[in-house]
Amino acid sequence: MSAAPRTVLITGAAGVVGRAVAAELRCRSIGLVHGDRDVPEADETLAGDLELPRLGLDEPAWRALAERVDAIVHSAALTEWRQPRERYEAVNVEGTRRVIELARAAGAPVHYISTIFVLALLDGDDRLGAGNLVREYIHSKLACERLLAV
Asked: Does this model's pTM top 0.90?
């Protein structure tokens, strides 16, 4: 008797990292995408939005997704630099909170794609200058790491 196939949700599946992850998985993949739904690397795509409650899904679709997902690879993020902190908070940090909510409902682990740049902020030593064009992005990624570390 074989076990049921595992299903992995990939947020940001239309992005460079999301597509690469989907291409390497050896299980069923669902790509959560904000724009481009043409992601042949994923078995299925689902339109979503990190800024909206339930990732932009209606209640029945969110519940159905939670019942299907065994693991989440969270690669979606606002990566455009020079945005105000509030934009990164709304998309990256609050979006990660929403991914965590789904993961809890699904009983699924979250595998988070961050950035090595967070090393510039560790130990309370902010080595980025005030005018650094990636500063707010990096702060948001570190905030997401801290949310997931709990």
From this structure: yes
